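Page 47, continued from p. 46.
Same chain as before, 179 aa.
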Amino acid sequence: MMVKDSARLSYELITRDDAGLLYELDNDPEVMRYITGGKVSTMDDIQNIYLPRMESYVNEAKGWGLWKVTVKESNDFIGWVLVRPMEFFSDSPEYDNIELGWRFMQKAWGKGFATEAARAVKEALIQDSNPSYLTAIAEDENLGSINIMKKLGMEYIKTYLHKDPLGDAELVYYQLKLA
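Result:
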């Protein structure tokens, strides 16, 4: 799957070679506020936890992975958009229910970049893989992410205990039904 450039942004799948960019992004307590309570990732975390975790679900043909987002004008890395089956790290992944997620540097906040990037990835997914559902999850206080979910046409479904090997969390669950 390819994600076409949008008005201001370009996209490519993140690889192990992008460890430094992931570290830079995750090294801001404000960026990590609704993910780890503000605890930043170490380079060891990136190399030994997050990259192997990402590599376990990457599927270029289906568009699964972390899509690196760069500003076309400057080629600056500003964040990523996640694509993978919901409940991927459980005994019953939902292959027709694709999770979208995003993480962006503070310098990119408030400029519509995350919405633009999530829309570009959403459109590529619909065109190339045609899932039945697109879903996003977040802490209920993460109003920025919830606003993006709504802009993507997702609706609130529930608040639930999300189970993950890295830690369980009570999250809101938004979804867009496509089929």
